[in-house]
Amino acid sequence: MGTLTACDSWPGGLGPGGRGSRPRIIPANLKAVNSQIVPENGVVFDTVDAARRNYEQATEALAKAEPSWLSQLISRRVPLSSWPDALTRQPDDVKVTVDLRD
């Protein structure tokens, strides 16, 4: 069980946290909500509140990660000179990066 922020001013009543005329926090079965939204290509916006220390912890964790595992996170690298190609989705794409060293 999680929560959603419902906003009267957004279509369907759901929108980014804190926006709208009268945002309300409501309990919701997020698994059920997701099963209804995903098949229809719907969207739920969320916000993240992270402090600098959170980014520092993430940096430390990534620095300790196995390089072979990390390399699997980027499925395609595109040279800077061909950056528009990065916007065209390929069947095996997970994370596409633009190589600025080009």
Keywords:
alpha+beta; two-stranded parallel ribbon; 2 domains; 102 residues
Outline the structure in words.
- With 102 residues, the chain is an alpha+beta fold.
- 25% of the residues lie in helices and 18% in strands.
- The strands form two sheets. A two-stranded antiparallel ribbon has the order 1-2.
Summarize, please:
25% of the residues lie in helices and 18% in strands. With 102 residues, the protein is of the alpha+beta class.
Produce the secondary structure layout:
Elements lengths: L1 E5 L17 E5 L1 H8 L14 H13 L2 H5 L4 E4 L16 E4 L3
Parallel strand pairs: 3-4
Antiparallel strand pairs: 1-2
**Number of H- or I-type helical stretches:** 3
Low-confidence stretches: 8-21
Gyration radius over CA = 19 Å
* Beta-strand content estimate: 15-25%
Give me the secondary-structure category.
alpha+beta
- Would you report the number of β strands? 4
The pLDDT mean sits at 74
- What form results from the Cα inertia axes? extended
Question: How many individual domains?
Answer: 2
Largest beta-sheet characterization: 2 strands, antiparallel
Measured as a percent range, the helix fraction is 25-40%
**Which sequence of SSEs, written as H and E, runs from N to C?**
EEHHHEE
Strand order of the largest sheet: 1-2
- Alpha carbon gap, first and last residue: 47 Å
